[in-house]
TrEMBL record:
Membrane among keywords: yes
Annotated InterPro entries: AA/rel_permease1
Topology with respect to the bilayer: Multi-pass membrane protein
PANTHER family from the UniProt entry: CATIONIC AMINO ACID TRANSPORTER 5 (PTHR43243:SF22), INNER MEMBRANE TRANSPORTER YGJI-RELATED (PTHR43243)
Parts of the chain that traverse the membrane: 12-33, 45-64
Protein family membership: Belongs to the amino acid-polyamine-organocation (APC) superfamily. Cationic amino acid transporter (CAT) (TC 2.A.3.3) family.
GO molecular function: L-glutamate transmembrane transporter activity; L-lysine transmembrane transporter activity
UniProtKB keywords: Membrane, Transmembrane, Transmembrane helix
Protein name (record): Uncharacterized protein
GO cellular component labels: plasma membrane
Residues spanning the signal sequence: none
Natural source organism: Leersia perrieri
Taxonomy, superkingdom: Eukaryota
Subcellular localization: Membrane
Length: 118
């Protein structure tokens, strides 16, 4: 008969082995069903495209982490968590619309001298 500690070790090893087997299965089946034609063109946007995509994924994970942390600290998570991203979206949309409302056709990227400054 195994002790509680021994049972815990057996369960940990068995669960770890099961996870490794499932991950290996997904990788093998993925390779068997993969189409190499999907890899052409490989990196169509080059290295800058890879870094942009990595930045998007990193920031998306950071946003998820912020929401998960916020869930632990709110008094009423079922109400507050959906409202937070919704409010953020409304603010982003308002800023975007205000930016579009400005006539940028005459705007140049050169620095303009402020009146009264030398």
């Amino acid at each position: 008969m195994l002790s509680g500690k021994g049972t815990s070790r057996v369960n940990w090893v068995a669960a770890s082995a099961m996870h490794v087997l499932v991950i290996a299965f997904v990788i093998v089946v993925g390779f068997l069903h993969a189409k190499t034609s999907n890899l052409t063109p490989f990196m169509p946007y080059g290295v800058p495209g890879v870094f942009r995509a990595a930045a998007i994924v990193y920031l998306a994970y950071g946003g998820f982490d912020n929401i998960a942390t916020m869930a632990e600290e709110t008094k009423n998570p079922s109400r507050d968590i959906p409202l937070g991203p919704a409010r953020l979206h409304v603010g982003d949309h308002a800023a975007s619309e205000l930016t579009r409302a400005v006539d940028w056709s005459g705007h140049t990227h050169e620095r303009t001298q402020l009146s009264g400054s030398e």
